[in-house]
Amino acid sequence: MKKLLVYLKDYKKETVLGPLFKLLEASFELIVPLVMAAIIDTGVAAADGSYIMKMCLVLVLLAVIGLVCSVTAQYFAAKAAVGFATKLRHSLFAHIESLSFSEMDTVGTSTLITRMTSDVNQVQNGVNLVLRLFLRSPFIVFGAMVMSFTIDVKAALIFVVAIPLLSVVVFGIMLISIPLYKKVQAALDKVLGITRENLTGSRVIRAFNKEEDEIKSFHENNDILTRVQLYVGRISALMNPLTYVIINGAIVALIWTGAVRVDNGYITQGEVVALVNYMSQILVELVKLANLIININKSIACGNRIQAVFELEPSIRDAAAASGGKTEDGGQSPYAVEFCHTGLTYAGAGEEALTDIDFAVKKGETIGIIGGTGAGKSSVVNLIPRFYDVTAGAVRVDGKDVKEYALDELREKVGVVLQKAVLFHGTIRENLKWGNAEATDEELLRALEISQAKSFVEEKEGGLDFEIEQGGRNLSGGQRQRLTIARALVRRPEILILDDSASALDFATDAALRRAIREMEGETTVFIVSQRAASIQHADRIVVLDDGKIAGLGTSGELLKTCEVYREIYYSQFQKTAGGAEA
């Protein structure tokens, strides 16, 4: 958490002025009981109306000055806290963007979102409260005790006894409550997790008729949360009655002692009232301080969670960042991509996901990649744009190891369409221009034509200016896939990777798409990852994967003769057609 305070360095003035104005406000607050004592002892005792009015004006003046100081302190504290949170979010987001897929997989997207939002908000709230109250409450407590000694030492001894007793009750309950509040937070996280799963997976739940089971699970976890909250609530509820018993006992003792001291002429009635007011101020500030410390503990816990993200070192290092500029050209090579005895082991995994992947792809060649579920198809193509780093061997693009490229330079060469079609809120034009911000409408329409998306885009109201909802909710799965393919084509990449990106397309559209890609201008090297044999059977060569290893490499005809794995996949999809032909 301490390391995060560096984001306050541009707000040094605010972090000093905020507490300073709060202390000024507290100073004026400590003067109020003395003014009240003067009103009682001088104005009321002598029935001097003008003196009473004059002192009332003093009270109003103190209130106005205190209000101005309070508002000023709040302004500076809020400015520092909000500025701190803004810089922290920017830095955290930039750091998260620098993480590779390995770190994203390890930490989890939902956790990163929580730390970017609620955790940062909690830390911001903690900074605000510390700047406003952390010095004020102890100042009032000790200031009130000091002021009581200036009034009467013997009566002030009651404060010496009452303040430790109040502190034991307030901070004792706080120390018991803090770990219980952590349990409440854990139970709340579980309820929120179940809620999130139910909302995102509502269709699946209904499809399997699991509504009653999910409702039962929610009620069970919600009951656990309720019981923990009630338990900690009962303990926290002890604070008010116990503190009021102590404070009222102290006030009774003050009035008793004060009455005796007044009778003996040591103090006045107004001074007794001032002592009672100081006692009340101490109670309020101790309760405030306890709540402040609880909030600070929450903020520190959230700050530590944020710091844990900052401490995640990206496993993929940018060669350009290390060398201070653009990397050297790899020279001319007949091969667009080379896998040189490549191996990949995911973080935390016990076994290799890919083992001894070794083949080279010429420029302009179309390569199909096929295999069973979990065979490593996506893992192979994810090594080309360096989404993951190899753990054995090497991957070369244009004759140069991908680790020697600047990441921007490498990924400019590659157009990737991932398995999950992701579109962002905005127009179709804005989404397509992610591929190339300078692309003209003609280039966009050409990419749409190749991806077989032009027909449905023209039917949409506004065409390229049709507004896409977040995540592409107002488009079908096939439409989303075709637009993501078009977005990659707009870049005019040297290497195009289609990672099972036509799974939602019908066979006719899929065939038209592959034909259009083959007929594209330029020497684009294409990788097609698919579960369908029909999608890759016309590729120049097909790589067959089985359990992370190459089981076969060649044309469809060659593999039907030589590769058992490919034959099983092929005939599992074409046997009915073959049977129909024989009939």
- Our measurement of the CA-to-CA distance between the termini, rounded to an integer number of angstroms, reads 74 Å
What's the CATH class of the largest domain, please? Mainly Alpha
Number of domains: 2
Query: What is the share of helical residues?
Result: 55-70%
Q: Radius of gyration, Cα only, in angstroms?
A: 36 Å
Number of β-strand runs: 12
Protein described:
The chain is of the alpha/beta class and 583 residues long. The chain contains 21 helices and twelve strands. The model is unreliable at 576-583 (pLDDT under 50). Helix content is 64%, strand content 11%. It has helices at 12-44, 49-98, 101-107, 109-133, 136-151, 153-200, 202-207, 211-237, 239-263, 269-310, 319-323, 377-382, 407-413, 428-432, 441-450, 454-459, 477-490, 507-518, 533-536, 556-562, 564-582; strands at residues 335-344, 354-362, 366-371, 392-397, 400-401, 414-417, 426-427, 467-468, 495-499, 525-529, 541-546, 549-554. The protein is elongated, with a radius of gyration of 36 Å. The termini are far apart. It has two domains: 2-310, ABC transporter type 1, transmembrane domain (ABC transporter transmembrane region fold), CATH 1.20.1560.10; 333-582, 3-Layer(aba) Sandwich (Rossmann fold). α20 (556-562) crosses α21. It has a six-stranded mixed β-sheet. The longest helix is centred in the N-terminal third of the chain and has 50 residues, at 49-98.
